[in-house]
């Protein structure tokens, strides 16, 4: 593709990365980080950011070499070929986005509850969660273009809001709340960072847009690094303001909507309400965009024969079956697993996928002209982070580990059955025809 055919410049590419990360994640997981890291919540976000920035190096190098809308899927396939590992990871990636949709839906319900007087009954909670997914499902089926047009505007609103919280809250910070005496243990700080890692996962969306980015050799690496660094700074300052301005006891009571509480010291009830409304908008738009993106990811993988052909069907340029299947499965996950477990499962899933992408970059080191020491550091960071998260979670939340391992098992079993029994016969028939 010539550079004249590419439509996305450097700023556009950076906005894709920032938009992917500053979705509903920060609204959903801030309270989870505080509950573990306490006064060191900002350091937890910094730890998670370091894993993200190292992994972004692998993504940058792989994206320049393999400019394809398949992104992560293509990287693993290029490194390992079409086999059980790559097929399982492709399906695991698709499932992981279902988990992030569920995370955003539960966060949407948590912020929506702040507009109700008194406690919300469990059935009302499930209704709110279901609405958060059902409405984006309808929007995606009716107008895919609305999703892409509205997302840029909503990203700008979210970033402006976070900056406003930082600027207005800086004068209300109690430094004592951030002192080492208020920190969690070293292990709990690291674990907190790994649980909230899902708030960083969106930078990989730049890879999916690589074909459209102008001067990709220069702009792809710049976009990856700039977007991750900007979001690290944003998250660290948000964590500092949140912990420094609000007593921890209040944050733990309101852990599911901690960011709204963080706006109260400087902006009062008005700030709480504005942030809650913005959180609804942010999580809703993130669900909208992720359903849109995951349906298209399924479409791309299905075109290569890696997923069932039903996901490879479009009407009006909308992969309707993929949209419906994505939404329905997300509804099931969101209504059966709580916020903490979803955050753990989502972070563990993407840490595993990013670990394998880093391994892919190491394996292709010469072809992609990568510094193997940096890629090795990325492998160790993502692998170590995943191991730490799983070991710690096993002692306190075995169910989350069971669900995560079940996702891996389902991915492997799917690839064994579909890959061997169906896809293999399909390609044999295609080969005979030719």
Description:
The two termini are 29 Å apart. Helix content is 76%, strand content 0%. By secondary structure, it is mainly α. 55% of the residues are buried. Helix 3 (41-65) packs antiparallel against helix 10, helix 3 (41-65) packs across helix 16 (372-396) and helix 13 (264-303) packs across helix 14. It has one domain: Amino acid/polyamine transporter I. The chain contains 17 helices and no strands.
End-to-end separation: 29 Å
Main pleated-sheet profile? none
Structural class: mainly alpha
**Global outline:** globular
Q: What share of residues is helical?
A: over 70%
CATH top level label: Mainly Alpha
What number is the mean pLDDT? 85
Annotation, overall tally of beta strands: 0
Question: Could you give me the name of the CATH homologous superfamily?
Answer: Amino acid/polyamine transporter I
User: Can you tell me the CATH architecture?
Assistant: Up-down Bundle
The fraction of residues assigned to DSSP E strands is under 5%
Give the number of domains.
1
CATH topology: Amino acid/polyamine transporter I
Total helix count? 17
- Rg for CA atoms: 21 Å
Order of helices and strands, N to C?
A: HHHHHHHHHHHHHHHHH
Low-pLDDT parts are 426-434
């Amino acid at each position: 593709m010539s550079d004249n055919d590419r439509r996305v410049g450097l700023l556009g590419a950076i906005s894709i990365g920032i938009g992917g990360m500053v979705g509903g994640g920060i609204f959903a997981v801030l309270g989870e980080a505080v509950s573990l890291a306490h006064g060191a919540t900002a350091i937890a976000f910094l730890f998670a950011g370091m894993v993200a920035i190292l992994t972004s190096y692998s993504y940058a190098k792989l994206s320049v070499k393999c400019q394809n809308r398949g992104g992560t899927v293509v990287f693993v396939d290029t490194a390992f070929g079409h086999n059980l590992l790559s097929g399982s990871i492709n399906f695991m990636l698709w499932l992981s986005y279902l988990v992030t949709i569920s995370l955003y839906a539960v966060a949407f319900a948590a912020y929506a509850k702040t507009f109700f007087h008194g406690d919300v009954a469990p059935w009302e909670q499930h209704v709110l969660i279901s609405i958060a997914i059902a409405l984006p499902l309808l929007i995606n089926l009716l107008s895919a273009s609305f999703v892409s047009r509205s997302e840029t505007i909503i990203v700008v609103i979210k970033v402006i809001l976070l900056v406003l919280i930082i600027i207005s809250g800086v004068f209300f910070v109690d430094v004592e709340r951030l002192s080492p005496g208020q920190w969690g243990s070293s292990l709990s700080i690291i674990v907190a960072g790994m649980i909230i890692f899902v708030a960083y996962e969106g930078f990989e969306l730049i890879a999916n847009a690589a074909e459209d980015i102008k001067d990709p050799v220069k702009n792809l690496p710049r976009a990856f690094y700039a977007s991750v660094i900007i979001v690290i700074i944003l998250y660290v300052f948000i964590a500092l303001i949140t912990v420094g301005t609000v007593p921890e006891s209040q944050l733990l009571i309101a852990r599911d909507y901690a960011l709204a509480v963080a706006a109260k010291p400087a902006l009062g009830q008005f700030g709480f309400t504005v942030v809650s409304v913005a959180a609804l908008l942010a999580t809703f738009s993130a669900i909208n965009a992720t359903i849109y993106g995951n349906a298209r990811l399924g479409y791309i993988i299905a075109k290569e024969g890696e997923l069932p052909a039903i996901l490879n069907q479009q009407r009006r340029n909308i992969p309707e079956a993929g949209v419906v299947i994505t939404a329905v499965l997300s509804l099931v996950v969101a209504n059966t697993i709580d916020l903490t477990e979803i955050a753990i499962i989502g972070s563990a899933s993407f840490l595993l996928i990013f670990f394998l992408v880093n391994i892919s970059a190491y394996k292709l080191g010469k072809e992609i002209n990568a510094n193997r020491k940096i890629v090795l550091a990325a492998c160790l960071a993502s692998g170590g982070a995943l191991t730490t998260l799983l070991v710690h979670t096993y002692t306190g939340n075995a169910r989350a580990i069971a669900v995560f391992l079940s996702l891996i098992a389902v991915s492997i079993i799917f690839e064994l059955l579909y890959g061997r029994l169906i896809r293999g016969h399909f390609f044999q028939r295609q080969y005979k025809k030719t």
